[in-house]
Design goal:
Length: 301
């Protein structure tokens, strides 16, 4: 078949409207252009497809059968174009991702490394910030996805895809006075200062809620930090301060330098979730990142 898809499109516009003038307005072309397209379609099939009159153009019986097949042809072509677009999107495009964790063990690093190797045309724009800020950027369309920790009851106005569980654990230096006790209660912890996030952070609110539920004074923050980091650990190793770190972060905490306090109340439940804009469709690149993250979780289980 030598027909172009444009001829097919113009032919079906005339079929739908029954008028060259209306079809020309709809397609944004001249009536002579439509007339030539219809003639090319009729010539291709060697059939008269329209009955022409002053009232317009009506399909002949042959035209009705041809129009049915041409509609299928147009639909198949549209599906093929969509498939090609999706395949190109898997190889190229921009992926905007937010993270809170900047350590070398961040699972996003591994997932993005895989995607970048597989898709030479892919570009990534990374944003590092707090969970609530990243959730807002996702909701407003500034980010495609964000991998963030989520505490129980924490309001994050975005769709959540759970990737893993990563509870927070209370950490001190080896040789800390609390490690010399056979039993450590939450009340014992109140005598020591903390390395913690700002008062507005979800981690700090989780700690203060624990102390409040046990009728204890809020923890005394000696060093305020934005994120868990190896710098925090260096300070922790030189002081009697206490901090909470994600279980996944413990790979950076040398067992010979640090100890987890055996205080069950300070083991704070926390999930790792992938945030997306509510009601939005997932692009192939977004799906690929999600699948890579879930595959990493499955491989580590």
């Amino acid at each position: 078949m030598s027909l172009s898809m444009r001829d097919v499109q113009y032919f079906l516009a005339v079929v739908k409207t029954g008028l060259l003038s209306a079809a020309a307005d709809e397609q944004g072309v001249t009536q002579p252009a439509l007339t030539k397209a219809v003639r090319r379609v009729e010539a291709e099939f060697g059939l008269q497809l329209f009955e022409r009159s002053a009232r317009g153009m009506v399909l002949t019986s042959a035209g009705q059968r041809v129009a049915e097949q041409v509609r299928r042809l147009q639909a198949d072509y549209a599906d093929t174009v969509l498939l090609a677009n999706e395949m190109r999107a898997q190889q190229a495009g921009l992926l905007r991702v937010g993270v809170t964790d900047t350590t070398s063990g961040n699972r996003v690093a591994a997932a993005l490394g895989t995607l970048l190797n597989q898709r030479p045309g892919l570009r990534v724009r990374l944003r590092v910030d707090r969970s609530d800020t990243l959730a807002t950027l996702v909701r407003e369309g500034e980010l495609d996805l964000a991998l963030v920790p989520a505490y129980e009851g924490q309001p994050l106005d975005a769709e959540r895809t759970k990737v893993d569980n990563d509870p927070m654990l209370p950490l001190v230096r080896t040789g800390h006075p609390l490690t010399q006790r056979s039993r450590v209660s939450l009340a014992d912890v109140t005598a020591y200062g903390w390395i913690s996030g700002p008062a507005t952070s979800a981690a700090f609110k989780a700690i203060t809620d624990i102390f409040a539920r046990n009728n204890l004074a809020a923890p005394r923050v000696v060093m305020e930090v934005p994120f868990a980091s190896e710098l925090n650990l260096s300070v922790l190793a030189a002081t009697d301060l206490i901090t909470l770190v994600p279980r996944s972060f413990m790979r950076h905490a040398d067992d010979s330098r640090f100890a987890v306090l055996p205080v069950a109340a300070l083991r704070v439940p926390r999930a790792v979730v992938l945030l997306s804009r509510p009601g939005s469709s997932w692009s192939p690149l977004m799906q690929a990142l999600r699948d890579s993250l879930l595959a990493l979780k499955a491989a580590s289980a």
